[in-house]
Write a sequence for this structure.
DNA sequence: CCCATTTTGTTCTCGCGTTCACAAACTCCT
DNA sequence: AGGAGTTTGTGAACGCGAGAACAAAATGGG
């Protein structure tokens, strides 16, 4: 069970690093588009918005793809990262729930260009079924199994209302999907071996609001103290 | 400068905890909707998808809002968290970039219900300006300053293409916005004191793809070893 | 050919976050 | 009233990730 081929011997890439690899990939693509063929860790770190020590450490988990005294070959490194993440291959994806967000996801060009292919759009609402979104006809949710088997889909996207999320996830898991990207504002429980990532628009805003409130309170408190002590502008 | 009012004396809530508070808030709301008036840390932890020790520790940063041997009063705790995050007040928000994603965000009902009010939709593209989206008329990007001043906006949302993101962010910062939620697939640099959070749809998918690939490789490797060693099903 | 310069890859240290484990505190039953 | 049973709040141990600092390797000039 635990036997591994020799090629992935010491390959335990930390989760935090995995989460940054796509950022590096994008930064490298941007550099390449600007005609830059070689870059230092400092250059790439700036483009990716991290510090260079962290970048070098992250890259070291993949292997030694740089040249000391020189830097990294942009195209070469880009290919290595892409291969490591798996975006050199084609990932079929199904999107369930074609509301406002589902529309936006179906139309998002960033998927296709990164190896993800939307093979089907599904919705339980019959009034949505049959509509064409982003050149794909929306099919009834009950067709999920057929589509997943036909295209060998491993990744599912949930963009339904919160109440439907768990049911959709359960169905996906039952059919054999092992990675789920959940946009619904609900916690979905899945069995061991299935990965779920959650993107929540309003949670991000709430985190910003917390810090914003702290900034304001800090200012208020300082102002209050200034008044109390008789300080302040003339 | 560092003077603080006595009410927020030992109030240094860890960032990781802050990120989970909105999740707890939503779980509490769900419990309340189901008519549940009291819950244990175990119950709430399950609803929020975390373990109970973490939940209790997180809540302990806010204060002692539970009762030993009993649990938490759902409504009371919900209010305390809401107040801590700042969603008991009203946060005016502007959304810049009314493409597919901007449409979805403008229509997202989860904002309004959590204290966020979309006061304006902006786009640099004149062909979009004047359209009505979610009951709000899209205005030209150049109106940003006027709108921010009028409504005292502190939070801006960027839903533009990647190339425009940095320009929009710069403009927002110049006008006095101090919190930015960036949906554009680009790294935006901002000065000290401005918070940026980034939501990237395709990065999340790439992280899933990485793990999916590892699952597949692990299975392949195991199968290959089985073949090499002459093992396998009859 | 050797040395100065540049830049990577890695080691070490520190701090944060997670988890365990338990004492304190509350309820309920007898 | 007292003890058994629950459940919170927190102290302590542990592991992971971030960042600094440095050794190793490559280049280029004299």
């Amino acid at each position: 069970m635990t036997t591994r081929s020799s090629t992935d011997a010491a390959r335990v890439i930390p989760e935090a690093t995995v989460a940054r690899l796509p950022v590096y990939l994008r930064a490298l693509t941007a550099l390449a588009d600007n005609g830059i063929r070689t870059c230092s860790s400092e250059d790439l770190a700036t483009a990716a918005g991290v510090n260079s020590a962290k970048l070098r450490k992250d890259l070291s988990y993949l292997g030694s793809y740089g040249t000391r005294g020189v830097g990294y070959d942009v195209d070469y490194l880009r290919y290595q990262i892409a291969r490591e993440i798996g975006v050199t291959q084609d990932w079929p994806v199904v999107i369930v729930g074609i509301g406002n967000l589902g529309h936006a996801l179906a139309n998002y060009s960033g998927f296709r260009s990164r190896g993800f292919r939307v093979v089907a759009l599904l919705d339980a609402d019959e009034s949505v079924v049959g509509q064409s979104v982003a050149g794909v006809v929306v099919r009834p949710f009950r067709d999920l199994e057929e589509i997943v088997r036909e295209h060998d889909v491993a990744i599912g996207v949930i963009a339904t209302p919160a109440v439907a999320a768990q049911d959709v996830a359960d169905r996906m898991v039952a059919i054999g999907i092992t990675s789920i990207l959940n946009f619904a504002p609900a916690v979905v429980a899945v069995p061991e071996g299935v990965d779920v990532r959650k993107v929540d628009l309003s949670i991000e805003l709430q985190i910003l609001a917390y810090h914003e409130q702290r900034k304001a309170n800090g200012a208020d408190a300082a102002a209050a103290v200034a008044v109390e002590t008789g300080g302040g502008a003339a």
About this structure: Chain B has three domains: 6-85, 91-199, 204-234. Residues 14-17, 51, 53-54, 57, 67-70 of chain B lie near DNA strand C (CB under 10 Å from a C1'). Confidence is low (pLDDT under 50) at residues 1-9, 230-234 of chain B. Strands of chain B lie at 38-39, 66-67, 71-73, 91-96, 116-123, 132-133, 136-140, 155-158, 179-182, 195-198.
